[in-house]
Amino acid sequence: MVGVLMGAMVSLVTAVYPAWAENWVYIGKATTGEEIYVDADSISSAREGIRFVYSIGNETLQAAANCNNNTWYVLKYDTTYSPQSQATQDMLVYVCRVGS
C-alpha cells in the first residue's frame, strides 16, 4: 500500500512540477513584489539576442535579451523593456553572462 501511495505521489509531483522545473533559477523580486525566475536551460544565443524563458508572478514569458542595450523583448506583448528593479537588472546580467 505504501508503495502504491508513494508511486501516486511521485506521479502527482511530476505532473505539477515537470522535470524542467528544477532548472529555474530564482533572481529576486520585481518592483511589483512578484518573484522572478529564469529557466537556465532555456538560455541560448540567437540572431536577435540571448533567448530565454522567465517567470514573473504566475506568468511565464519567452524573451530575448539585447545585452548591449540592457533591454529585453517579450514575444507575447511585442514590447521591449528596460530594468525597473534590481531583480530585472540581475535577470539581464544573469542571462547575458550565461548566454554569451
Architecture overview:
There is one protein chain. By secondary structure, the protein is α+β, with helices and mostly antiparallel strands. Helix content is 29%, strand content 37%. The protein has two helices and seven strands, in the order H-E-E-E-E-E-E-E-H. Strands 1, 2, 3, 4, 5, 6 and 7 form a seven-stranded antiparallel sheet that branches. The longest helix is centred in the first third of the chain and has 15 residues, at 2-16. It is globular, with a radius of gyration of 16 Å. The termini are far apart.
Total of helices: 2
Range of helix content? 25-40%
- Work out the number of β strands: 7
Looking at how many chains there are and whether they match, the oligomeric state comes to: single chain
Using only C-alpha atoms, the radius of gyration works out to 16 Å
Averaged pLDDT: 84
Q: Helix-strand pattern, N to C?
A: HEEEEEEEH
Measure the end-to-end span.
50 Å
Q: Outline the biggest β-sheet.
A: 7 strands, antiparallel
The rough form would be described as globular
